[in-house]
Amino acid sequence: MSDGNSRLGAKEPMIANPVLKPKLATPALVLPSVAILVGLACLAAAVAANMQPSWVLLVLGAAFLLTATTVSQIWLTRVRHLHTWMEKAKEQWKNFDEAKRIHGTTAEISVLSVDALEPTGSWITIKWNRFDHIQAAWLEALSEPIWPGSVLLISPDAAQIMPGAPWPATYYVVASDCLAWAPEAARESLADTRYHASDRLRLPRL
Q1: Where do runs of H (alpha helix) occur along the chain?
Q2: What are 137's strand-pairing partners?
Q3: Residue 188 and residue 83: Cα distance in Å, rounded?
Q4: Which of 3, 51, 56, 175 could in theory staple to 140 by disulfide, Cβ–Cβ 3.0 to 4.6 A?
């Protein structure tokens, strides 16, 4: 269950991952859009040259208009979904940065995959973003689902990671240490509007 359709602490692994940024332009949408534009151009040229009987042009025009309307509605729906997702992500990153500001020592970890779900939590693979260190972790069940592609702000446990000591084989994240989360996919898009507070965690480099 390491794909993007799994969520932590949940029993519905097939639900779409809301952390993933909605796609706007895809080949399945772009190609028909281009074909419609080409068809409309050809139809306009045929009308100008009077190359087809009027009833043929009328039928073709109605077909292209119906198809163009459908495709336009798909584009509009995707634009709205993307806008809604970005606004929510912006608010999540705002809360993330605020939590980083008001708490003491913090660290950012990215959830790379969900490897196993348990009643009390989940086995996951994480990356310590500041140190680019990837390892297995146990995440205690939280009050809301956390998905692969999330960035967690945590209070690191000094009993598990200490300067000069090796990285632990497995890091255990208790629910009370999770301060905030936000979608990784929105980080780059919101980079110009976010304040990146410095991460004050000190860990040994391997």
Answers
A1: 27-49, 54-102
A2: 124, 171
A3: 15
A4: 175
